[in-house]
Design brief:
The chain has 999 residues and is mainly β. The chain has 10 helices and 55 strands. The strands form 15 sheets. The protein has a 22-stranded antiparallel β-barrel. Strands 3-8-9-6-7 form a 5-stranded mixed beta sheet. The longest helix has 21 residues, at 2-22. The two termini are 52 Å apart.
Length: 999
Amino acid sequence: MASSACIRARLALTVSVTALVLGTAPAFAQSTEPPARAQDDATTTVIEDVIVTAQKREQSIQDVPIAVTALSSETLEALRIEGGSELLRAVPNVSFSKSNFSMYNFSIRGVGTKAVSASSDPAVAVSFNNTPLIRNRLFEQEYLDVDRVEVLRGPQGTLYGRNATGGVVNMFPELPVNDYEGYLLGEAGNFGSIRGQAMINIPLGDTFAIRAAGAFTQRDGFDYNSFKDTQVNDRDLWSTRFSAAWTPSDRFRSNLIWEHFEEDDSRSRTGKQLCTTDPGPTSIGGVAVPAGLIRNQLSQGCQPGSLYEDAAYGAPNGGSLAYIRFASSNIGLGWNSATNPRVRVYPIPLGIDPYAGVTQSRDLREIGTSYDPVFRATNDVVQLNLSFDVSDTLTLHSQTAWAKDDYYASQDYARYVSNPIFVDSSNLFNTARQPISSPISPGGIFTDPQLGASDRLLSVDLSRSDNRQWYQEFRLQSALDGGFNFSLGANYLDFKSQDDYFVFNNVFTLIAQYWYNQDLTSANTGLRPIVCDDTVARECVYVDPAPLDQLGEDGHNYFRSKNAVHTRSWAVFGEGYWDLSSDLRLTAGLRYTVDRKVTTPYPSQLLMGAELNGTPGSSSGGYSRRDYPALPDVEQEWDAVTGRLVLDWSPDLSFTNDTLVYASLSRGYKGGGTNPPRMDINPTVVQYQPLAGTFEPEYVTAFEIGTKNTLLDGTLRLNTTAFFYDYADYQVSQIVDRISLNENFDARIWGVEIEAMWRPVEGLQFDGTLGWLNSRIGDGEKSIDVMNRTQGNEEWTVLRPWIQVPSNCIAPTRHVEAILNRYMTPTDQTQLALSALCAGSSRFGTFDPSFPSTIPFYTLYGFSYNPLLEAPNGGRGFDADLSGNELPNSPDWTLNLGVQYTFALDAWDLTLRGDYYRQGDSWARVYNTEYDRLKGWDNVNLSVALAHADGITIEAYVKNVFDDTPITDAFTNSDDTGLTTNVFTLDPRLIAVRVSRKF
């Protein structure tokens, strides 16, 4: 009830400013643009026609049998849509959220990009002037000198082809014209925001013109770092575009465009990290679980729970993390005293939880970190367009484009601060009770080569991407006088990408230096490391000595996922348009696509070592001590036939001015790919279950009916659409074994969309969109939920494995009880035996008699067990039934309502506008648990603009009026980092005033 009242209140505020003036307005004027005073009322209330190129030829939007939304530069400005991430406020059944790494998820009708892989493709094709850009800065870049943005909903398998199963977002820039024109814009707002834009268009003779535009944005940070008392997540970005157009004759036209974008600031790649702490069980069956080291081993770190409860603002049980448990129980530094009683000293106290007592602010814009985010991105697009009229009825079009995208984003992995954890290694005693010291952590300070000196647990990640694309399309288009026209074409795409993801952690380095690289002669004089170089013959792990900004990129003291992909795609396509009668038209199109992907897999090597001569490490299980050797290339190829069949009818109806009714059948395709490679572990050292190395392409068959109507003498536009999708192999990923494991699921999607605009009287405009969506995953689909591996089966228990094995496992509860019944001390064999229930280790023990190991636990405990054969899914857990679940990021409804009113004040026009947006509930993952629930949210924006006839405009606006911080999406991190959750939200309330001048 309270939520409904809040929604009603916000709706009321959206329209109140305009409603208050309606009763006193002496006259009405046209809304979106300043009105022409000489026109009569009937003319100024007619909704202008919008010309689009959704079918790659100029048509009225009301004549195109496709569900398409077109937003002119004036509309974008009126709605305060500054970039691609805000398009959801103007298009039905669209959702958007930043993703965890270098990209984002723009979803149309429930179809988005939920696959995380360097080889995965977007499901919604993002295009610049008809060129599809595989990697782009849709999220970060702001619109500059835009002619219009077209959003096509539904598969566009003919003219746009691959990667358009969800639809297309196509941004068209303004191009040079044969008139002098320009504009200047300046803006200042809260958060110290300063923005500017400028454009100038210069004709050089009758056949040549140039156009240049530029923009910048600078502002202070949205987020507060309570640990350093600083603001982070600021903006410092700029864009430029230069274009030239040459028309030497009536038959030949050309233009060249170069656009550059650059950003260098402290933008946060993700939002706050949430966790409902899992303290671990106090008992298993009837057996008590000792607090500390053993109980921590039975904790996931975080447990599933609503992201909206106070408990979600905790921190993981850091004692459950494998590297914390290892360092606090295996690396002995000496004793704390020369006399009895004395206690063995480890670099991290035994059984410690680094996050004990840590709670977070409930403010999603407040974090705590000693490491401020670093964000850098550059993007260049160069495009050459040529058009030649072969005859009066045939035109040959050529589009050549080259694009380059580089991305670098680094931030604190957790975004909350641990307690001090390192012991003082200066005053210790050896076995002979003699005083010793170790350089590991003098004064309780450990120094990491990448992260520096600290007494706390530090963890920082880095997401980096380097992409190059070349694209060529030729298209022959007809303009025949008869009842038939066509478009024939071919295109080629060449795309190269390398994505790197690093995680640096000072405890990783500590283990590499003081366990794998310990000087074996230093035990009685103070533990010291050796340098793992070519003088060391035995197994060791190379520690990169370079600081973070000069990274050597060959160290095994940090996690690195390196992914290189080369994609080449060819396609031929054609579409024909037949006028079956004066009011009936048939459209038929086909496309044949061949995709080839070559992936070079580089396994991760965290804490992997080997001997100098190449002998695999008997302790770590590695094949390499330094660098990242590549495995053989994985070559994949698919071909697909896609297309559409459309019948549209333009009846002459008595109650409309213009009507189009259409029905379509279309098919779309999106390529498959490879899952990133896991750690390259020797299976004779540690048992390691296999995972799928590839994932399948997506295919969608879509049925759609729609109608587009102009009514009330052109003052009302009402478009409606209904659709049904039969979706095969939708790609969704989750983190398993530190990699993004992409899975495929069948689904069905159906829904309805309404778009309307009404100008009842001069100066007043109402506009809105409504989308209703229903998505269902197919019967029999299943997947393992990493947050709930046992699926409530009490006969199985979740366990933490060896440090080399990243993912949790499940084991029979009876075996866990048997091991706990033998427990004696925190450092006895209990933790090793529990880990062996996940996988056998040649050095640390096994329950499988067929797996050679120095510790035969099957003899010590009286039972044998092979987890890879006897446990569900090799010990990964029970499958969760997904039948009937909703697809992620598919809100059941979206609503946008806008109202604007323009006063005519002599030479000035005063326009007031309010917009209300509402998105219904959705899910972050396919499991649809309470943990996955994303509550619906809304957004209110208000603006006022005062425009003069000579081109001066003064504007003020408020975006996100109520300063809401909804959770728009969530990402579950890996098991070995505690199953924490990164969440994403909106920008805060923005208030600004701008002044612009057109000339």
